Amino acid sequence: MIHSSPARFALLVFTALILLWTALLSLPIASASGKMTHLADSLFTAVSAICVTGLSTIDMATHWSLFGEIVILAGLQIGGIGVLTLASILGLTVTRRLGLRQRLLAAGDTNPMRMGRGVSESQAVGLGEIGGLLAAVATSLVVIEVALTALITPRLMAAGYDFWHALWNGFYLAASAFTNTGFVPLKGGLEPFVEDVYMLSVLGIGVFLGAIGFPVIFALYRYVTGSGWRSHKRLGLHTKLTLSTTLIFVIFGWLAIAGLEWNNPATLGSEGLGQTLFSSAYMSVMTRSGGLGIIDPLDMNGSTMLVMDMLMFVGGGSASTAGGIKVTTIAVLFLAAYAEARGYKDIQVFDRRIPTEVLRVSVSVLIWGATIVLASTVTLLHMTGKPLDIVLFEVISAFGTCGLSTGLSGELPDAGKYVLAATMWAGRVGTVTLAAAVAATSRSRLFSLPEERPIVG
């Protein structure tokens, strides 16, 4: 099963890690009070860390001890990289080589459709480049998080933290931003920095880099440096589609949030033009799956919350630290609709043709994601009796592993925490597993059934 279906193997490993992290966070040594943390809160935090979500049922700044924070940091790093990618990196470090099975294992983590029968090697990252991709993952993780830490630490020191606390919290925030987790270890959260352009810009850059995905970072590195066997070629379709769609959604969210909240005195209405534009752009970036919000969603208009729901549901890039159904999924769906409207037989973009099986997986991921959100929303509506906009926002934030919150997570009964934890789990590994299952079940038949067309539309 490990070699035939890396995504299903990842599902099992993710689940095992969640159980292990739940046990670790339940230990008295993990809490600042020295008491055992309630099981529902430990499980919720473990899922939120491993699935790089950022939602929390307790105060992250005061509840956990140093041991607990280390466990959480380790969890979000593992979850951000991906368990199969991490295993491949460790194997490469030990053996200094990658065999075909190891390459397929790592490749399945970046694109589960590789497990389908008859899938061509016209991929964003070829099997021959997997070793380079793994090196890029490890290097980018270290370099980007160290750079972010170096930029954040002085700002925290200027805010009154001593060097060691500033360094630790700076690294925590750097890891939280790049892995798109959204945990904040500071008392009062980001409240002291809501108008700090420098700090928020650094966090926004970290979230954006994490959300575009390791294959895109790898491709951009090869393009800039001219290294790799594809260096003479232009950027691949996956990179172009991810970057263009991400920028479109960021700009759309920026304009929508600014426009809808322009006259709301509880959010952006009391700010100047420059701060309004900056804050709305920052919040748009955070809907990629960042979760490091500076505006309380409860103060927003219902229309703004709905726009953010859509942005969080889409999420970031494939094989990234972000969640959601992914920007390439929604791009393929829109391109298919455009091709149908124009009467084209093929889906075409950037002088390339997208195969039908990619559309098939995209439709499946969309339906699966919508079903998860619907089921969780109905369940929590019945449990809590809260308004639809509040429950839907929290559920989509959990499914998209975003971490922006209305505060509902901390008010849920234990049963509600388990439901939301399951939503986070499904949002992080469920769509990938479904994509692999759909790709793996593609098979040829020796016969064809009679054709009959139902009425649709």
Protein described:
With 457 residues, the protein is an all-alpha fold. It is 62% helix and 1% strand. It is built from 16 helices and two strands. It has helices at 6-26, 39-50, 66-81, 83-95, 100-110, 130-158, 163-178, 197-212, 214-225, 237-261, 273-286, 302-314, 327-342, 356-384, 388-399, 414-440, and strands spanning 347-349, 352-354. The chain has a two-stranded antiparallel sheet. Helix 6 packs across helix 9 and helix 12 runs parallel beside helix 15 (388-399). The two termini are 40 Å apart. Mean pLDDT is 83; it is low at 87-110 and 112-128.
Going across the biggest sheet, name each strand in turn.
1-2
Per the principal axes of the C-alpha atoms, what is the gross shape? globular
Helix residue percentage = 55-70%
**Quaternary structure annotation:** single chain
* Main sheet overview: 2 strands, antiparallel
What's this entry about, in short?
This protein has helices at 6-26, 39-50, 66-81, 83-95, 100-110, 130-158, 163-178, 197-212, 214-225, 237-261, 273-286, 302-314, 327-342, 356-384, 388-399, 414-440; strands at 347-349, 352-354. It has 457 residues and is an all-alpha fold. Helix 1 (6-26) runs antiparallel to helix 16 (414-440), helix 9 crosses helix 10 (237-261) and helix 10 runs antiparallel to helix 12.
Detail the topology: elements first, then pairings:
Elements: H1 6-26, H2 39-50, H3 66-81, H4 83-95, H5 100-110, H6 130-158, H7 163-178, H8 197-212, H9 214-225, H10 237-261, H11 273-286, H12 302-314, H13 327-342, E1 347-349, E2 352-354, H14 356-384, H15 388-399, H16 414-440
Antiparallel strand pairs: 1-2
Helix pairs in contact: 1-2, 1-3, 1-16, 2-3, 2-16, 3-7, 4-5, 4-6, 6-7, 6-8, 6-9, 7-8, 8-11, 9-10, 10-11, 10-12, 12-15, 13-14, 14-15, 14-16, 15-16
